[in-house]
Specification:
heterodimer; A: mainly alpha; 2 domains; two-stranded antiparallel sheet; globular; B: mainly alpha; 4 helices
Chain lengths: ~500, ~120
């Protein structure tokens, strides 16, 4: 009876939970509510994924207004995959966040933290679920505004400045997106993305449509932190509370990648974006820039969170590299890396949160020898780091394997070489952690530290475990990604 | 297809660029937000102007009316205005907190304070 409403319920539940949390004004109740809605969203997402696994599309008309006039929620294999990813990360992080937030956020603000968390989750799920261009913008702003607040809750006063800068860049990005959607609306007379796609061929050669593509590309690239539009990301990730960093790093940029894929493949169509225009080449160059320059910058960071934030920019480069190759294998590689990187970075930032809980700031100079007092956390970071490098047996290897395959498919052996070379840069910054944590003598402060509490270690290790598990059993991830890729390639025809 | 015929687009582009320029060129955090709001305002015009037909009325079906203006852009932009107000409010709230924490709302002075902080020994 309630199952037909799943597409909208998954967004509405966290959206309704948020104002209830504000009214109740209790940190504990808010946490319970946030946990319940996150897990409920995960359950719904899984059931939706099962429904669309055979390639069917679930269309839900909000308020029973039939599309294209009403707002349509449209779930296919691409966004069902993403909904599972976002709600999975949210469910794991919310369990972790209780202890972490208690240490990092003032007590009287706890209920506000979970309110913003629920709103951000609602926004991200909404972006993924909706099939309406303007609705997408609204959810984008819901998730963005709440994430600015979440970042500003960081202990360091630099969190305020980071949040402000993200607000400026993010709003410019969102406004670019809404300009792009507006131009498409002017040309096609519809906001429904599927309807838009069917009407675009009549006006495809006009300058307005090209301008729309340009605005959308720049706007979405700002949100997904594509090099060189990534400048907001390192500070935002570095100074936000640990749970927020883990949540945003694993979901926000990934959802933006999905929006890019949706517009490129489902609305404009692959041939219009990649064959008629040099978008593939542009993306390729920017992705390579991200992989090498951001990784190099990461090597020279003092703060671990900042280092892994720059590493995120580099890893996003791998995702867009897969997209830029414009082939089924390339797209599969991009989508599978989207999933894999979310797991890896989620795990790493959660584990860094355990250090932050005990140490305050997580800098290289004050973690010397920390592996002796916090062995479980440290070993988790090493495993996560191996996945970033792409060692066989981890998820990072799976993504890079498919990226290299896609490069060879295209006959670009030099690209395969560059992918491997850039992985070596990851080796350097992961090694810096190993060197500091394992081979240095602990100083007095470090020697007195205790291991992080189990309620933080268990969620973090769940993610680490997933990094290993999906590195060995690729059926679900690569299978899901290649189906999603096929769906995207088909939808643009 | 004359310049005058595209009058509303020229205004839109001018407002958008003026707003973006303020965001980029000004170091004062409040002025940046003002620029951002001006930039967002240009989008309102971009949506609403093409929906208006000269002589068109609200879409009420009646014998004496033949021309209707499109009401949808107005509704969309009502939402966009709400989003813009929320963004501005949040931005200004952040500026208040920044002023409390740093004692300044000039970007270069704030970055200078952070620089000197990070170069000091712990």
């Amino acid at each position: 009876m309630i199952a037909p409403h799943f597409p909208v319920l998954q967004v509405v539940l966290p959206l309704l939970a948020a104002p209830i949390m504000v009214l109740l004004r209790s940190g504990r109740v808010a946490w319970v509510l946030a946990t319940v809605v996150s897990w409920a969203a995960l359950g719904i997402a899984l059931s939706l994924l099962a429904q669309v696994a055979d390639g069917s599309v679930v269309s839900y008309a909000i308020g029973s207004w039939p599309p294209p006039w009403g707002i349509e929620y449209r779930i296919d294999r691409v966004n069902a995959f993403l909904l599972v990813l976002v709600s999975l990360i949210a469910s794991v992080v919310v369990v972790y966040s209780r202890a972490s937030v208690a240490a990092e956020v003032p007590r009287e603000q706890h209920y506000l933290f979970y309110t913003m968390y629920a709103l951000c989750l609602a926004g991200l799920l909404g972006i993924a679920a909706t099939g309406d261009g303007f609705n997408l913008f609204v959810f984008l702003e819901i998730s963005s505004l709440s994430s600015y607040v979440l970042i500003a809750l960081g202990r360091d006063r630099r969190a305020l400045m980071a949040s402000y800068q993200y607000l400026i860049m993010g709003t410019i990005g969102a406004t670019f997106i809404v300009i792009g959607v507006g131009l498409l609306y002017l040309m096609t007379g519809t906001l429904n993305l599927a309807d838009m796609a069917s009407r675009l061929p009549q006006v495809t050669e006009t300058r307005s449509v090209l301008a729309a593509l340009a605005f959308l590309t720049v706007g979405i690239s700002l949100k997904l932190a594509l090099f060189p539009l990534h400048l907001w990301l390192p500070n935002a990730y570095a100074y936000a509370p640990s749970a927020v960093t883990a949540f945003l790093a694993a979901t926000a940029t990934k959802v933006s990648v999905y929006v890019l894929l949706r517009f490129y493949y489902s609305v404009f169509g692959e041939s219009r974006v990649f064959s008629a225009l040099p978008m593939g080449e542009i993306l390729l160059v920017l992705s390579l820039g991200a992989m090498f320059i951001a990784s190099t910058v990461a090597v020279f960071q003092h703060d671990l969170k900042r280092m892994f934030a720059y590493s995120s920019v580099a890893q996003i480069g791998y995702i867009t590299l897969g997209v830029s190759l414009d082939s089924a294998t390339g797209l599969t590689a991009g989508i599978v890396h989207l999933f894999n990187h979310a797991l890896t970075k989620g795990a790493l930032f959660l584990l860094l949160g355990s250090f932050a809980l005990r140490l305050g700031a997580v800098k290289f100079e004050n973690i010397g020898g920390i592996a002796r007092v916090m062995p479980v956390t440290s070993f988790g970071i090493v495993l996560g780091g191996l996945s970033l490098i792409g060692i066989p047996g981890t998820v990072g290897f799976v993504s890079k394997w498919y990226l290299v395959l896609a490069a060879f498919d295209r006959g670009a052996w030099w690209l395969a070489l560059l992918i491997v070379l850039s992985s070596l840069l990851a080796l350097i910054y992961v090694w810096r952690f190993v060197e500091a944590a394992y081979f240095r003598e602990p100083d007095e402060t470090v020697a007195k530290l205790k291991e992080a509490p189990a309620e933080m270690l268990v969620p973090a290790w769940l993610m680490v475990g997933a990094c290993i598990y999906f590195g060995l059993d690729t059926g679900l991830t690569v299978g899901g990604a290649s189906q999603a890729a096929a769906e995207l390639l088909r939808s643009g025809r | 297809m004359t310049i005058a015929g595209h009058f509303s687009y020229w205004i839109t582009i001018f407002i958008a660029i003026a707003g973006l320029y303020i965001v980029i060129a000004r170091g004062n955090l409040v002025k940046k937000l003002v620029g951002l709001s001006i930039f967002q305002t240009s989008v309102y015009l971009l949506y609403i102007a093409p929906g208006k037909l000269i002589g068109g009325t609200a879409p009420i079906i009646a014998q004496q009316f033949q021309l209707y203006s499109n009401p949808l852009p107005h509704v969309l932009i009502l939402t966009a205005i709400v989003v813009g107000v929320a963004t501005l409010a949040l931005g200004l709230a952040l500026v208040v907190r920044i002023k409390e924490a740093y004692g300044s709302i000039e970007e270069d002075e704030i970055l200078e304070q952070d620089e000197s902080l990070s170069s000091e020994p712990r």
